[in-house]
Amino acid sequence: MLDYQAILEEIYSSLKKTEDTGEVASYIPELAKIPKDKLGIHLQLITGEDYAVGDALEKFSIQSISKVFSLSKAFQLVGNKLLTRVDVEPSGNPFNHLSLLELENGIPRNPLINSGAIVVADVLLSNLKNPKEDFLNFVRELAHDDSISYNEKVAESERETGFNNYAAANLLKSFGNLENDVDDVLDFYFHQCSIMMNCKQLTNAFFVYANRGKCLKDVLHLTPSQVKRINAIMLTCGFYDEAGEFAFEVGLPGKSGVGGGIVALLPHCFTIATWAPALNPQGNSFLGMQALEQFTTKTKLSIF
Ligand code: DON
Known about the structure:
By secondary structure, the chain is of the alpha+beta class. It contains 13 helices and 9 strands. A 5-stranded antiparallel sheet has the order 3-2-8-7-6, sandwiched between helices. Strands 1-9 form a two-stranded antiparallel ribbon. The relative contact order is 0.20. 6-diazenyl-5-OXO-L-norleucine (DON) binds at residues 63-64, 95-96, 114, 158, 165, 193, 256-258, 283-284.
């Protein structure tokens, strides 16, 4: 039996000694205020045990990690019809890249880049009665935690500087791939990205993707087929133009956010979340990537 606590502690102390050359995201001014030296890891095994080190219980802005939850909700609501409006191919480009969207007539490459997530947000806006409330409740249900909330300051901060996302949404609208008003869709999108969660809450919420669609309390939220597809999209698209590198170094489906969080999972075995706010040039947590590489190397647990 592996000593998971000892492994997490080894990783933590090795990363504390590593020079962190990453930079905290500053294009969302509210995120630039977060201290760079935070580091937390939480591991949740499918058998119930869990392990933690560092700042695993401190909440941070989940940002693009929320795209996995919105994709899941959209699959629940409209099923594979979603795929007529957003593709499932890796983009090989940064998360906020625009020119491919124009070349491909307003059909985003995948639901995890910004333009794809904006289309998914539009689907949720059209299909949920009280979109922001219902979506937050879905995330709370997955994590079994009613303390999870939006951060209005972060949402507002992103709205004020969100020119790139306005450009993407306007391009989508011009191609007829948004049903709702650009401002309404982006208001929902900025709120979903502003959700605050800690590493433990993220490993709990991601349990469904490691457990064929059933959450920690054994309730079925997604079908095994939907879970297979969401994991495949995370593996191939979860880290943008670094998806290949993450599969190569870590070997797990996962998703990052510019708040510095990463969540990854091994189906039928575990979910793991890391938080280290400074990002590499691709917008993924510099130390989080290394933590996960060390974890799968030390435990020899990956999908490959
Ligand atoms: O739309 C944005 O730019 C942010 N709300 C989310 C981007 C993000 O987290 C990319 N992830 N690594």
